[in-house]
């Protein structure tokens, strides 16, 4: 009997302290953040020559694993330094969600890099993540013609040289 009485206050404290977390999980949107760049050297990754794109369009798409039906759950336009933030409401449970490139306003850098055109994002609270702020990998478009300085930059990267010297 003594054991049962001593556990009642503990259960009450746990219920009161966990209630705000449960409420947050239901109504608080996820905030997906990332950036979009122009791969000026066509290397397939960001370099010191990379330009970040203002005004690029990005969307968040989730696909149901059973029906394979896709749904756009958020969209954004990049701001300064190519950064975007998308609010997505609702827990997507075990859906496969990605951030994907839609459009670049740069006429000489508008073809999405096939290897960097999407970024997986996790939109569920069932995995124990407490934060609603999630970061997507950077995504890039390829510049039509690489910059002239890219040849020297490539040599430095391949030689493991100091790229700050360029």
From TrEMBL:
<keyword id="KW-1015">Disulfide bond</keyword>
<dbReference type="GO" id="GO:0005615">
    <property type="term" value="C:extracellular space"/>
</dbReference>
<comment type="similarity">
    <text>Belongs to the Ole e I family.</text>
</comment>
<feature type="signal peptide">
    <location>
        <begin position="1"/>
        <end position="25"/>
    </location>
</feature>
<keyword id="KW-0732">Signal</keyword>
<dbReference type="InterPro" id="IPR006041">
    <property type="entry name" value="Pollen_Ole_e1_allergen"/>
</dbReference>
<dbReference type="InterPro" id="IPR006040">
    <property type="entry name" value="Allergen_Ole_e_I_CS"/>
</dbReference>
<protein>
    <submittedName>
        <fullName>Uncharacterized protein</fullName>
    </submittedName>
</protein>
<dbReference type="Pfam" id="PF01190">
    <property type="entry name" value="Pollen_Ole_e_1"/>
</dbReference>
């Amino acid at each position: 009997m003594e054991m049962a009485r001593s556990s009642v206050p503990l259960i009450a404290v746990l219920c009161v302290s966990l209630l705000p977390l449960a409420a947050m999980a239901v109504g608080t949107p996820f905030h997906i953040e990332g950036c979009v760049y122009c791969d000026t050297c066509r290397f397939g990754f960001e370099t010191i020559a990379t330009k970040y794109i203002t005004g690029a369009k990005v969307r968040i798409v989730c696909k149901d694993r059973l029906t394979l039906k896709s749904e756009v759950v958020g969209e954004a336009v990049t701001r300064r330094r190519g950064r975007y933030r998308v609010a997505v409401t609702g827990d997507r449970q075990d859906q496969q969600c990605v951030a994907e490139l839609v459009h670049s306003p740069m006429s000489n850098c508008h073809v999405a890099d096939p290897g960097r055109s999407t970024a997986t994002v996790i939109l569920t609270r069932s995995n124990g993540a407490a934060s609603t702020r999630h970061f997507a990998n950077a995504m890039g478009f390829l510049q039509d013609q690489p910059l002239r300085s890219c040849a020297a930059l490539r040599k430095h990267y391949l030689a493991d040289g100091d790229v700050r010297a360029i």
